[in-house]
Automatic annotation (TrEMBL):
<dbReference type="GO" id="GO:0009055">
    <property type="term" value="F:electron transfer activity"/>
</dbReference>
<dbReference type="GO" id="GO:0009279">
    <property type="term" value="C:cell outer membrane"/>
</dbReference>
<dbReference type="InterPro" id="IPR036737">
    <property type="entry name" value="OmpA-like_sf"/>
</dbReference>
<feature type="signal peptide">
    <location>
        <begin position="1"/>
        <end position="24"/>
    </location>
</feature>
<keyword id="KW-0998">Cell outer membrane</keyword>
<keyword id="KW-0472">Membrane</keyword>
<dbReference type="InterPro" id="IPR050330">
    <property type="entry name" value="Bact_OuterMem_StrucFunc"/>
</dbReference>
<dbReference type="InterPro" id="IPR006665">
    <property type="entry name" value="OmpA-like"/>
</dbReference>
<dbReference type="InterPro" id="IPR006664">
    <property type="entry name" value="OMP_bac"/>
</dbReference>
<dbReference type="Pfam" id="PF00127">
    <property type="entry name" value="Copper-bind"/>
</dbReference>
<protein>
    <submittedName>
        <fullName>Outer membrane porin F</fullName>
    </submittedName>
</protein>
<dbReference type="GO" id="GO:0005507">
    <property type="term" value="F:copper ion binding"/>
</dbReference>
<keyword id="KW-0479">Metal-binding</keyword>
<dbReference type="InterPro" id="IPR000923">
    <property type="entry name" value="BlueCu_1"/>
</dbReference>
<keyword id="KW-0732">Signal</keyword>
<dbReference type="Pfam" id="PF00691">
    <property type="entry name" value="OmpA"/>
</dbReference>
<dbReference type="InterPro" id="IPR008972">
    <property type="entry name" value="Cupredoxin"/>
</dbReference>
Length: 281
């Protein structure tokens, strides 16, 4: 459930020839004259080199020849509104380091401004300048300097489109209610135990995540879900005390379960009131 950072390593020689990176789980490529931008296979940490973005010399002014290309980028980002990216500017080593750092930052901001002007959600975009600090090739040659002058689009995470919520799951008669809960990313889920014994609940694929609850005490445990995905949990002893938390960037409705008033004993008549609120209503 904790945010995970994925590393991304690229062979410098390949980058000099290929204008995009490819994700192992699908297509992730920058737009070219022969191919449109594809973000479906991109994951956090992937970087696309936008070789068709050019600027006036010693300037952050984007050349008009780059506009059609950037419009492709804007269109794909609008079709993938939950992808958050960093527009990153890089320079060659000609000139002072401070000058290049400022130039790269201004160029990244210019690209961000263009994309926002084309309708991309500003919250999807951040601008970063790296100056001459991250070369891909040898700055001693004109070819190497040309490779190093670039704009990159780096996948940096998921944009949450719904407000996080605090919601509940309760356990009684050795069952979790509701057994499936859909929440937006960033939400906190609280489990409350109404059984006369404890439940030892763990999540698939997450070592050491335990929910210990003390019977008859209506003890609770809370866990925050930051990343979209499906998280399945179960009690290691009582197999019916299981469920699924589905975390999405945005949800169309909120389902809030109100735990029953604790009666002091387990009963099959336990019922929790559920309130469904449509987003925007």
């Amino acid at each position: 459930m904790k945010k995970t950072k994925y590393g991304f390593m690229i062979a410098l020689g390949i980058l000099a020839l290929v204008p995009f990176s490819v994700s192992a789980n699908g297509v992730c490529q920058a737009p070219t004259a022969n191919a449109a931008l594809e973000l479906d296979g991109c994951k956090s940490g992937d970087t696309l080199i936008l070789r068709e973005v050019h600027f006036d010399t010693d300037s952050a002014r984007i050349k008009e020849t780059s506009f059609d290309f950037l419009s492709q980028v804007a269109s794909e980002l609008k079709q993938n509104p939950t992808i958050k990216v960093a527009v990153q500017g890089h320079t060659d080593s000609i000139g002072a380091a401070d000058y290049n750092m400022s130039l790269s930052q201004n160029r990244a901001q210019s690209v961000r401004y263009y994309l926002v002007s084309a309708g991309v959600n500003p919250d999807q975009l951040m601008a970063q300048g790296f100056g001459l600090t991250e070369p891909l090739a040898d700055n001693a040659t004109s070819q190497g300097r040309a490779v190093n002058r670039r704009v990159e689009l780096k996948m940096v995470g998921t944009l949450v489109l719904s407000e996080p919520v605090a919601t509940n799951v309760y356990i009684s008669t050795f069952h979790a209610v509701p057994s499936k809960l859909v929440v937006p990313a960033g939400s906190q889920v609280t489990w409350t135990n109404y059984d006369e014994i404890s439940h030892d609940i763990s999540f698939d694929g997450v070592d050491g995540t335990r929910i210990w609850t003390q019977g008859w005490k209506a003890n609770t445990y809370s866990l925050q879900f930051d990343n979209p995905g499906t998280y399945t949990y179960r009690c290691s002893v009582h197999k019916d005390a299981n469920g699924t938390i589905v975390v999405e960037p945005a949800v169309s409705e909120y389902v809030v379960t109100e735990s029953p008033v604790y009666p002091g004993q387990t009963t099959s008549s336990y019922k929790g009131d559920q309130t469904i609120t449509r987003v925007g209503s």
